[in-house]
Write a structure and sequence with these properties.
Elements (H helix, E strand, L loop, with lengths): L7 H52 L11 H6 L23 E5 L9 E6 L8 E11 L4 E11 L2
Antiparallel strand pairs: 1-2, 2-4, 3-4
Length: 155
Amino acid sequence: MRQKGFTLVEMLLVLAIIGILITILLPSVFGISQETKETKAKAELHLIQTALGNYYIKNNIFPDDDPLEDWVQALLDMEPRLFNERPADPFAMVVKNDYGYDYLPPTVAGDIPTYVVYTVGVSQAEIASVTASDTVQHTEDCIFVTNAATRNIGP
């Protein structure tokens, strides 16, 4: 009389097949996660750029990048509201996960102040060079929006 159940060989064969499938599928799952983070960052940066434009029209200046000032909160408090919640950098590795923001006031009367809002992205680069554009840009170093001609960002 034969007993019901699996033999050791059958169990090892099933585990080997599962291991092979995990090895094949795991990189593609993480790749999708990376693309999702990039898409989220690009969409939020575009929305932040719109909010900064609205803020400038209303106040004739961009929010300050002083660490004691909360530039994101200034955008959140503005009417019409463009955000339901505080935008969070999907690549941030710190507790306060705001996007990076650099503000450069005009040096000459009549000049438009410039800003850059960025995420360091997957590279986690500490410094990057950006070029002006009305659209969200994606470089090897970061994802950003700016109204500046050319700027270096980072510490």
